[in-house]
Design a protein that fits this description.
The protein is built from 12 helices and 10 strands. With 404 residues, it is an alpha+beta fold. The strands form 4 sheets. The chain has a 4-stranded antiparallel beta sheet with strand order 1-2-3-4, with no helix packed on it. Strands 5-6 form a two-stranded antiparallel sheet. A two-stranded antiparallel ribbon has the order 7-8. Strand 7 and strand 8 form a beta hairpin. Helix 7 packs across helix 8. The N terminus is likely disordered.
Amino acid sequence: MFRYYFHIMADSCSGVDDRTGSICCGLWVSFPGKTKWSIFFFISPRRRLAANPLGVVVVACLIGLSLPLPSQLPTTHIMMMMSGADDGEAAATDMVEIYCASCGIAAGDEIKSLKKCGACKSVRYCSVLCQKDHRSRHKGECKKRVAELRDEMLFKQPECSHLGDCPLCLLPLSLNYDDSTMMSCCSKLICDGCSYASMVREVEGSLEHKCAFCRQPMPDSEEEADLNVMKRIKANDQVATREKGAKCYEYKDYSSAFKYWTKASMLGDVEAHYRLAKLYRDGEGVEKDSKKEWDHLEEASIGGHPDARHNLGVREVSKGRIERGKKNFIIAATLGNHESIKALKEGYVKGFVRKEEFGAALRAYQAVVEETKSSQREAAKPDPIPRPAGLAAKEINFWWPNNK
């Protein structure tokens, strides 16, 4: 029943800088069987108007009954229309004028496109000279916007942990690394339930022992498995590269571990970011660097690593940023991290965490843990499948302040 139209039109008028012009905005509202009315006004978005620090001045405003929208105004730059129909459908078209943040020139025939600020992406420039000229005025706003964008990315709840699902049964993989096995031939992480079921089938049928995923024959020795891993590394397999680094770390070859984990992190491996954070924290193979440690923890947290998210929460609380730390604990708990549940429980006792927050996190934690269970995985537990160690140690030491 309610319909509305919204027009924005730019008019290059005299007395105003021809690079900015003025803008006419109109709003027309109609109610069936009732009075129609419209509002339209002119504004000038000039950047250098001393009378208004915001650079926007209302020139005129007219309100009348039964006035149609002005139809003779030149619509040279912008026009946007939105309508709401009786059946609930909405149609919208949006064409937004783009100006250089420094000189105010609009994108047009002479300048096909304006380049965005490389950091905040919120303003555009027609040239490098304009960007340099505007840098001193834009620097503070740019840093603030960059921090906001980073926080939006950091505190977004991941859909699942960095391990994802088992490629065979499609159930979420357990965060306990002892409950899954990485295949050297294809670098796939298979849950013990699927590995156990495959082994039972091979034993009962007297079949050759093969990979449960790619069906390649399993290596007969550790040397053959290492050759498979090296082939995957040459093919830029991020999982194989990270696991090679884990083996180097196990033998205390920290410089080689750093090299492989750095390459794996550049290929997008989340676990590699977490392990690099540990190297920078403990100074193993590299000099201690808290900033780089923090950066790698954030990257791993964004990728859905629960332990990295928990450690980030520990760091935030230790710096007195209670709310940020609490957010990290809640996200880690909903991914299945048990240490974060313990931290939230302690925070609830001390008054830092509300009852609703702790209850929601606990229910999400229980649900995600339950999703990782299956009859096949339970059957595989009495006969665990052996696998190499070498994973980065978890950080579990944590305490809230004594008083809120």
